[in-house]
């Protein structure tokens, strides 16, 4: 794993060496990549794992054997309080969530339980533990909802309506409440759509398209192809989480703040699929189904605050990230 974005004045290796880090959602796309990087930095990682996912990159490459695994649910208050206390956690990075929009549309309550209740229960465990010195929580660009003034900036009001979007807006506000009301050292990330090797949610546009092309099948676009999104490569996302935690440790005035992270390269769904097809030298015609619901037409972020306040910048352009991602999936699918 390439470690990107080390702000001036921060000795990244020294900061993370032997640091007790609690990672939720560690078996997901970003969680797996983040955990591997933390281990490379010689941090002492404790991972909360609810379901055993054999296909997870963290499991397949054996990385999970190098971390302390706490089995349980993010909604289990007693478990979270115990884990933070017994493992003397210093840094909490909260990635666990139900992240699939169609699932949220079909099962809003389970999404809200995981994304909203899970967040306040983790923050409450942090409030009760004086050893926790940094808490980084993953929100989303979806928390902003549909607005006319784009790109989103951190002072754009959160106007989410749809189930997944509302869950992220609520958890975002709860994090700010814990920071400002109780002094919990929590800050929030708002990122665009993640992509990279290791994402096994095949209904997402990047892994789904690559798998279809490898199989010689038409890639599916479940929207009408015009939805515009920001995309951020997984290694840049890892750099964002590390950077925010490092800065939060030295600047307590950042508690309660939110930061957008984006490459600034927005794409429609059809443009992104065509870009992948080009990199894979495929002439397959996408299957545009126009069946997506509860989706915001245009979403993209302004990451000026993260660049100027945190010293963060992306290390990968969209095409470079896509090429690395395609290579990972080719190897994965051939092995499978």
Automatic annotation (TrEMBL):
SUPFAM superfamilies: NAD(P)-binding Rossmann-fold domains (SSF51735)
Coiled-coil boundaries: none
One family name in Pfam for this protein: GDP_Man_Dehyd
InterPro entries tied to this protein: NAD(P)-bd_dom, NAD(P)-bd_dom_sf
Keyword Lyase part of the UniProt annotation: yes
GO MF terms held by the record: GDP-mannose 4,6-dehydratase activity
Sorted UniProt keywords: Lyase
Enzyme Commission code(s) on record: 4.2.1.47
Limits of the NAD(P)-binding domain: 22-325
Name of the protein in its database record: GDP-mannose 4,6-dehydratase
Organism in which the protein naturally occurs: Marinibaculum pumilum
């Amino acid at each position: 794993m390439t470690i990107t974005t080390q702000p001036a004045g921060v000795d990244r290796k020294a900061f993370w060496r032997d640091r007790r880090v609690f990672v939720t959602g560690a078996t997901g796309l970003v969680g797996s990549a983040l955990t591997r990087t933390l281990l490379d930095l010689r941090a002492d990682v404790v991972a909360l794992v609810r379901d055993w996912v054999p296909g997870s990159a963290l499991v397949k490459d054996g990385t999970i054997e190098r971390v302390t695994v706490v089995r349980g649910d993010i909604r289990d208050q007693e478990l979270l309080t115990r884990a933070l206390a017994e493992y003397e956690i210093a840094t909490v990075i909260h990635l666990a969530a139900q992240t699939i929009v169609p699932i949220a549309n079909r099962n809003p309550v389970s999404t809200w339980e995981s994304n909203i209740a899970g967040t306040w229960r983790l923050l409450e465990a942090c409030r009760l533990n004086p050893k926790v010195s940094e808490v980084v929580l993953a929100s989303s660009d979806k928390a902003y909802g549909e607005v006319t003034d784009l790109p989103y900036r951190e002072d754009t009001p959160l106007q989410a309506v749809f189930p997944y979007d509302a869950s992220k807006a609520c958890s975002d506000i709860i994090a700010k409440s814990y920071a400002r009301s109780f002094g919990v050292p929590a800050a929030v990330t708002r990122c665009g759509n993640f992509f990279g090797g290791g994402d096994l949610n095949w209904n997402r546009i990047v892994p789904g398209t690559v798998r279809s092309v490898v199989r010689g099948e038409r890639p599916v676009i479940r929207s009408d192809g015009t939805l515009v999104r920001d995309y951020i490569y997984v290694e840049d996302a890892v750099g964002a989480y590390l950077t925010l935690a490092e800065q939060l440790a030295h600047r307590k005035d950042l508690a309660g703040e939110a930061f957008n992270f984006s490459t600034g390269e927005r794409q429609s769904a059809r443009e992104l699929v065509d870009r992948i097809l080009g990199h894979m030298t495929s002439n397959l015609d996408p299957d545009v189904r126009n069946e997506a619901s509860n989706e915001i037409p245009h979403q993209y972020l302004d990451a000026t605050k993260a660049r100027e306040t945190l010293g963060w910048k992306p290390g990968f352009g969209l095409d470079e990230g896509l090429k690395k991602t395609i290579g990972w999936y080719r190897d994965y699918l051939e092995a499978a």
